Amino acid sequence: MDNPLAKLGELKRMRDQAMKIQKELQAEIVNVDSHGVQITITGDQKIQEITTNGRSDNDIKDAVNEAVKKSQEVAAKKLSTMQGGLSGLLGGQ
Questions:
Q1: CA atoms of 10 and 36, how far apart (whole Å)
Q2: pTM (2 decimals)?
């Protein structure tokens, strides 16, 4: 028989791990230079700086989208460390 208190402990551990990863993502910095537009974005997808050098709106949009994509890749790598814990908690689903 499963112990519900053990699962609560596991959930707390996973929540603590998620909060740690979130703080790590806030500290990650991703720099993108696309079409002459430089963007600095954090791993939790907060744009820190945009330098346009007179580029068009489309160039800026493309650079922002690339920066967000790269920050998502950073987040996915960090969050993949939690995947094993979730699978065990949810019964391997």
A1: 47
A2: 0.64
Question: Has residue 55 been placed in a domain?
Answer: yes
- Rounded CA-CA distance 87/33 in Å is 38
28, 74 in Cβ contact below 8 A?
Answer: yes
| Residue 63 CB burial class (10 angstroms; 0-12, 13-18, ≥19) | buried
CB distance 82 to 17 below 8 Å: yes
92 assigned to some structural domain: no
pLDDT tens-digit readout, 46-83? 889 888 888 788 888 888 899 999 999 988 888 887 66
Query: Domain residues for 58?
Result: 4-86
The answer to whether position 93 is within a domain reads no
> Domain containing 59 — which CATH number?
3.30.1310.10
